[in-house]
């Protein structure tokens, strides 16, 4: 069997071979990420289901309609939608090979995400101040957990984007950084979609 | 000051029970012994370099197997302690509290820390070899999954001597598991131990789906893929759909306990039934997650040892997929008696019975495969044949349980205990034991001793029936599960005594397995062929044990059972195509990050169990640091040069 094999120049093969394999690897990573998003969808699905079951359980405490202040929430929504758009612009810059534009748009996205989080924290503080904390009633437990889980995701996304900006400065655009940018932007859009559900189910339906 | 320390120690360390002191001493001595041996033989760097940081799927598989066998021992000791307590009426061997702790840890350990890791071990040992791949899709993630499982299991296990075991049953129903009725730390150990290892399981699911979908050898269409890999695919799909629900359920329970939330409490508008629905939406698919790979294993073994193609390949694939989907629509059969109403019960009763159809299809396929085959009975085949009647009986009692009105009689009785042990031991455990003896030579390069293996099989097999058949009867006589004692006039004692004897026979079976492994290591029966069973699939084409890169040249596949067909062609005198040239092989580098990061998770969990934020916060920082360190590392791979491959291959084929 072994006799059929011939010796070959390692470096030539490596150059050719290595490229093909890397390409594959990057596409597998993207697929793995999609699967991760499915699992995350199911997690949010479970949280939404819990919220749906418990949303009427105020146990005599303050109700959502009393406490929600919609202007802040609507501002949050616009900020997050805009940040999804800017992360899209970042990807466009990347496709044009423009590192500066890419980093710049990512920075804008991070800033918008951070303002979103700031507003959300302000809202939480306000609610607690008004007497609705996680231990007030089943409704508020479900509310803080669901909205908080989304906020935590956004925070993780922020740290991640900052890390990628640093890597882009060092390595520029290559197959690895390209995949990382693609994945974060997928993640960011996903969080946007989840937020639209939060906005509709948790806030709009409650105050209408 | 001194008083404070004393008070702290009396809460921190579990005291007051001779069994626990015994365990303390045993744990202490083994730690000292391990540290001594490792230091004396200067093995620490070897351990770190070759094992703790490895990303090789075969080594990770071996570590899974070792860890799960240790857990089988722990869970088995728990089982025998329970059976000893129940051997005679009115025994006072275990206190009721201790009994509660033991049935909880037994159930959790057997399913989550024995069956799951043994299954993942097999995934790792077999799948890449069987589909002609050099590795799994994400080797780094694979190592992380293993260490998360490991440190999660450790966290769960220390509860026994530190702080106290959980004692609310393996699914921890609230309000019993809420802070009001379980104020101790046991329940928090449960939550964090399972949560940490569960995240590992989720990632393994993702990893193997991508591996199977993207890394099959060229030419291996899905419908040409070996049956075990199919079963891994269906099990992994079920994992990624079911485990997120578990993650959320445990998180909610923790938030209830830690932050005083009201998801499942009786006051504040909470709803304990929510928990029961959520946990079974994971829990029912979970039992299919562990049984599906066993189906794949039996399919491989039946075909190999009957020297025939698997009968009904397509229907087998269909049955696997049908089961993974249907398993998501049956969860409520676990609480027919809890007032869901007749229509809901009917829906879940019917959906449960439907699962019997694909399962029946599989049993017939195995039987038809054996029919007119040239059957050889080696240990793997023996486990397979032992499994079939077990599974048929277990399946039938399962259908009995799925009849909602009848369940009002069977519910929470020993009938149920007998049923699920029949499927879990007779199906899952026997299946994985079969797999271990079947693939052992491929992994370690030597065969397991046949004679001791047969002894182990017969001890387990006979012990099983002696232990669990009486329990069906006991259940019908009204004995309920989770009772720690009963009275003389109940009339249950003879059957219980028989059952206990059966339990110990299985214990002896386990000892035979340990003996078998030790004996086989000592008197190695080397497998020099790489194909000890005259196998049919790709893993048997490479030397045993498989080299680090698995395949020197990635094979091309044209049909199902490709290796078998090739051997047939060779016998007919057809010369195989010449092998293409060797090329340098691209491999991932080892990494210490998975181990360190998982250890940080352990620290976080331990901190939360004892409400020590000073411990959890650095743990969280450690986790984030590990993630960033990994993200910033671009040098994660290397190439094995052709010369080295040639040397390795020549040595493995014994032609040096
Ligand atoms: C060596 C053989 C085994 C024996 C003798 C044994 C015995 C027992 C006993 C006596 C109980 C407690 C019943 C009660 O009082 O409620 C029990 C419960 C249980 N066993 Fe086993 N067992 C064995 C193996 C296994 C295996 C292999 C699995 C899973 C793969 C398993 C899973 C469970 C579960 C989930 C429970 C329920 C625990 C609970 O009530 O919360 N057992 N077993
Ligand atoms: Cu079930």
Automatic annotation (TrEMBL), chain A:
Location in the cell: Cell membrane
Keywords associated with the record: Cell membrane, Electron transport, Membrane, Oxidoreductase, Transmembrane, Transmembrane helix, Transport
Transmembrane segments: 33-54, 74-95, 102-122, 142-166, 186-205
One MF annotation (Gene Ontology) recorded for this entry: cytochrome bo3 ubiquinol oxidase activity
Alphabetical GO biological process terms: aerobic electron transport chain
Record domain Heme-copper oxidase subunit III family profile: where: 31-207
PROSITE patterns assigned: COX3 (PS50253)
Bilayer topology term: Multi-pass membrane protein
Protein's UniProt keywords contain Transmembrane helix: yes
Positions in coiled-coil regions: none
GO CC field: plasma membrane
Pfam families linked to this entry: COX3 (PF00510)
PANTHER family: CYTOCHROME BO(3) UBIQUINOL OXIDASE SUBUNIT 3, CYTOCHROME C OXIDASE SUBUNIT III
Quaternary context: Heterooctamer of two A chains, two B chains, two C chains and two D chains.
Function: Cytochrome bo(3) ubiquinol terminal oxidase is the component of the aerobic respiratory chain of E.coli that predominates when cells are grown at high aeration. Has proton pump activity across the membrane in addition to electron transfer, pumping 2 protons/electron.
Family according to the record: Belongs to the cytochrome c oxidase subunit 3 family.
Protein name: Cytochrome bo(3) ubiquinol oxidase subunit 3
TrEMBL record, chain B:
Pathway named in the protein's UniProt entry: Energy metabolism; oxidative phosphorylation
Name of the protein described by the UniProt record: Quinol oxidase polypeptide I
Transmembrane regions: 20-41, 62-82, 102-127, 139-162, 189-210, 230-255, 275-298, 310-332, 344-368, 380-401, 413-435, 455-477, 497-518, 599-632
Lineage top rank: taxon: Bacteria
Keyword Transmembrane helix annotated: yes
GO biological process: aerobic respiration; electron transport coupled proton transport; respiratory electron transport chain
GO cellular component, one term: plasma membrane
GO MF annotations in UniProt: cytochrome bo3 ubiquinol oxidase activity; cytochrome-c oxidase activity; heme binding; metal ion binding
Membrane topology field: Multi-pass membrane protein
Cofactor(s) for this UniProt protein: Cu cation; ferriheme a
Keywords (A to Z) from UniProt: Cell membrane, Copper, Electron transport, Heme, Hydrogen ion transport, Ion transport, Iron, Membrane, Metal-binding, Respiratory chain, Transmembrane, Transmembrane helix, Transport
Sequence similarity: Belongs to the heme-copper respiratory oxidase family.
Gene3D superfamilies from the UniProt entry: 1.10.287.70, Cytochrome c oxidase-like, subunit I domain
Domain Cytochrome oxidase subunit I profile: 40-558
Subcellular location: Cell membrane
Keyword hit for S-adenosyl-L-methionine: no
Main location: membrane
Coiled-coil regions listed: none
Gene source species: Candidatus Cohnella colombiensis
Reactions listed under catalytic activity: 2 a quinol + O2 = 2 a quinone + 2 H2O
